[in-house]
UniProtKB/TrEMBL annotation:
Pfam families: NAM (PF02365)
Chain intervals with Polar residues compositional bias: 1-15
InterPro entries: NAC-dom (IPR003441), NAC_dom_sf (IPR036093)
Keywords on record: DNA-binding, Nucleus, Transcription, Transcription regulation
Organism: Coptis chinensis
Protein name listed in UniProt: NAC domain-containing protein
Annotated stretches, region: Disordered: 1-28
């Protein structure tokens, strides 16, 4: 005769089924508490993996701290620029130092030029508000965007019209070009112009898009910098 018990849920279990269930639970607990003994090779691999994990965590923490310091330094630098410190590089310095390092992806602690990916999708007035540099000589930006490739929904009603092109030299060697664009809105030429600097020869296409350096000026207030 099979003895059964009734649970409150209404499901009947035999005594043998209850014993099997209890035995299974005990085996599972015993198996869970048993730690596999590692061989020397396995222990060494586990130790090395632990060291790698520790190094990875340290690197990530150092990067986070570096980013925090970089942001703090940039804020301090922008504050100094807004209180009289001038940023007045020559064309050669802009191309041969700043633009060259940017495209080589070197880290520069004090990089007073911020990157705006959709530069030409912003109205010139908006750009002047985005830059923290002293406006005495202009506003400087890095960008990967191109003139008049404007996305729908931006705050730009005008367009940048190409005006002229000049070469940039370093020790009698051509190292770059600067293209001057004038801002037109409602068929009227406005006071803004954009000087876009490019490396010569152009960087080889790689993992990252080519970067350009742009200087936004107001014609009546700009100081033309000669190399």
């Amino acid at each position: 005769m099979v003895v059964t018990t009734r649970k409150s849920s209404g499901v009947s279990l035999s005594v043998s089924e209850k014993e099997d269930k209890t035995k299974f639970k005990k085996q599972a607990i015993a198996k869970k508490g048993t730690k596999k003994k590692l061989s020397k090779d396995e222990a060494r691999k586990e130790y090395l993996q632990h060291q790698i994990d520790m190094q990875t965590r340290l690197i990530l923490e150092e990067r986070r701290e570096a980013e925090i310091w970089k942001k703090a330094e940039m804020e301090s630098l922008r504050e100094m620029f807004s209180n009289g410190l001038a940023f007045n590089p020559t064309d050669t310095q802009l191309v041969n130092y700043y633009l060259n390092k940017k495209n080589a992806y070197f880290t520069v602690t004090f990089f007073p030029i911020q990157e705006v990916n959709d530069l030409y999708a912003n109205h010139p007035i908006t750009l002047t508000e985005m830059s923290g540099l002293n406006a005495e000589t202009g506003w400087y930006f890095f960008t990967k965007s191109r003139p008049n490739r404007i996305q729908p929904g931006t705050n730009v009603q005008g367009e940048w019209i190409f005006a002229k092109e000049e070469d940039v030299f370093y020790q009698d060697v051509k190292v770059g070009e600067k293209h001057v664009y004038e801002y037109w809105e409602c068929d009227q030429k406005k006071e803004y112009k954009m000087i876009e600097y490019q490396l010569v020869p152009a960087p080889k296409p790689g993992r990252f898009p080519i970067c350009f350096l742009c200087k936004l000026c107001i014609d009546a207030n700009s100081v033309e910098v000669q190399s």
